[in-house]
Amino acid sequence: MKNLLPLLTALLYLKFGFGQLPPVFGEEYNDKAQHSQMIKTYLTPQRIVWQSDDSNESMQNAESLLKKGNGQVAVNEENLFRLISTADKKPAILLDYGKQIHGGIKIPAGIRADKTPVRLRLRFGESVGEAMSDIGGKQNATNEHSLRDFIVEVPWLGSVEVGETGFRFLRVDVMDAGIDLPIKSIEAAFVYRDIPYLGSFESNDERLNEIWITGAYTVQLNMQNFLWDGIKRDRLVWVGDMHPEVMTINTVFGNHEIVSKSLDLARDQHPLPQWMNGISSYSMWWLLIHKNIYDYHGDLAYLKEQETYMIALLEQLSTFMDKDNKEILNGHRFLDWPTSEKPEAIHAGLQAMMVMTFEAGSEMMAIFGREDLKMKYEKVAKKLKKHSPKNNTTKQAAALLALSNLQDAEKINKEILTKDGLQGMSTFYGYYILEAMAKAQDYDGAIKVIRDYWGGMLDLGATTFWEEFDVMDVVNSGRIDELTPANKYDIHGDFGDYCYVGYRHSLCHGWASGPTSWLSQHVLGVNVSEGGEKVKIEPHLGDLEWAKGSFPTKYGVLQVSHKKNADGTIKTEIDAPQGLTVIN
Hints:
CATH topology of the largest domain: Glycosyltransferase
Number of helices: 15
Helix content: 25-40%
Oligomer: single chain
InterPro entries: 6-hairpin_glycosidase_sf, 6hp_glycosidase-like_sf, Bac_rhamnosid6H
Protein name: Alpha-L-rhamnosidase
Radius of gyration: 25 Å
Domain Alpha-L-rhamnosidase six-hairpin glycosidase: 198-523
Number of strands: 20
Pfam families: Bac_rhamnosid6H
Strand content: 15-25%
């Protein structure tokens, strides 16, 4: 049996024990897809959420859909699920596959008197509400980026497999009258990248453990042909969005080729003077990602491949400063959506990013042995630091100001980051807010934000992290895995802004995975430097009693464990691979 352990390694040993697969991912049979790392696994539904008829007239043997099968039809099968339609009754059923997945659906149909193909309407949903919706309307269900609402024909004594989207729920409707359709199964064709979870995180707080693995799984689902941002919508290489995803990949999967493949695609698709994705900050994120992956993995040959483009990009960026050392970047001036209508925030964030980009550029020039350019870009960074943006009140831009040392991290944390609790957070820039809180030594506060903000999505039924999450929307809202009661809001369909209005909102977005790398870096305390040659272990347990886990390095997997003693000191045990320098 093909081992599915890489899917949720930490979850397996936390909740199911080694060697035992969680029911959602119980492997039934596999088919190699796309290339050696891509796997297609067929999953049975975990429950029936809703059905249009309980009378046994238009729908029979529905519970058979929940039984594990082999997907092969035969001429003599009995007690199959049956959909029976009349002019007045066209049956429908809503299924839950238990976990957000990427892929499609396979429907094998049995033998019947009429050999004409049967038309079925399929509606995929990341939430129950989305699967029950129609395209358009106030709640804005769409077929954009990936088809999730369409009609298929099911053959006589055969099967049909369709769909390529992100979903957890599926509604199936019979379209025509006079149908008597036996169905052997309605299986989810789950397509994912079969890679080991080299990193792990476990503590005495199950909520943090679940958040860590959920972030890892969110990114894994988006590791398709390239590193996407979303599996339902935003199936694109957005370079800025990649940064939190790459930090999660560094933490969980190590040095993976999908990162370089996606970075190179973005570079080649956007020759200078174009900005990547048309966004100046995204070109800066491209450079900062390269600095991060070199710090973690030390692949000098790959970094050298970027030298010509990188220097040209830095030269181009250096022309976007005025006489007062203020950035004047053109193109789409963007940090994230919640700040997109706040010019003061955008300028503050871009000024901070310019500083970080030129500092990183200077360090990479030193790696290339270009001492002249090292000094040049160091001077540019110092000039940029002479301008301190004013009037920003957003947490996103404030975090970047702290991380770039344009403003004091402790002051920023006290006056902006911790103000009004979780209001003003975003799933994308939430990662940088956590990083800024760590720089301000507010580890307890950051851990609380992770529990409450990312945990708030789990409380609503999330199994992957969302494109956006506003805690103000939670009041009187139902869960995504239930039919919304008449007296409650639909957390998925009734809210959202900008590009994520209603059901267009993606509930699996890789940019929201920040807590995974943050918990490994700051709670486990694993800090990698010098091209992956050194790791400094500096744990911050906060209110945790213990934490342990693993971390992929260029020399192999590092194992660390921490236990808080009665006097508050921490006992640390380290098992490091040969060749890795560990500073404790």
